[in-house]
Amino acid sequence: MSGESASLPAPAPAVNPETREYWTATAEGRLLLKRCLDCGSVIWYPRALCPDCGSLRTEWFAAAGRGTVYSYTLNHRGQGAYAQAGPYVLAYVELDEGPRMMTNIVGAQAGELTVGLPVEVVFDDTGEGSALPRFRPVVG
Ligand SMILES: [Zn+2]
Q1: How many whole angstroms from 60 Cα to the centroid of ligand 1?
Q2: Backbone angles phi, psi at 101, to 5 degrees
Q3: Interval 34-52: pLDDT, tens
Q4: pTM tops 0.85, yes or no
Q5: One-character DSSP codes across the chain
Q6: How far does residue 53's CA lie from ligand 1's centre (Å)?
Q7: 46 alpha carbon – ligand 1 mean position (Å)
Q8: 119 alpha carbon, distance to own chain's centre
Q9: Which of 37, 41, 88, 137 is least surrounded, with the fewest CB atoms within 10 Å of its CB?
């Protein structure tokens, strides 16, 4: 499923011990989230400590990779690796599991995007053992 948004750059993220498992999974086409074993919160972004109750008892689980557009904007002037990317969509996607992820929407026609639009994850390989999760409209 990689290469869905070839027009967007896919710079490798900074990986640390708290996020290594997350990024390794993205390279395999899986979106992982963490769940707190004490209070049940779904934790995003990935970290060792539950932000709701402070517990260190967390576990990884595979997200469905589906959600809906919570908000979005068309970005005309990117910075850094995105300086030459041209207009692209920056969005918050609310995952089925609850967290809202900042991401890009790809594969959408102009005017097709709406708040609440169902989307699914795609992965753009960074070439460095990780992939960037982006989302495209669910077809059908
Ligand atoms: Zn907790």
Answers
A1: 13
A2: -105, 135
A3: 999 999 999 999 999 999 9
A4: yes
A5: -TTTTTTS--PPPP--TTTHHHHHHHHTT--EEEEETTT-PEESS--SS-TTT----EEEEE--SEEEEEEEEEESS--GGGTTS-SEEEEEEEETTS-EEEEEE-S--TTT--TT-EEEEEEEE-SSS-EEEEEEEPP-
A6: 4
A7: 13
A8: 11
A9: 37
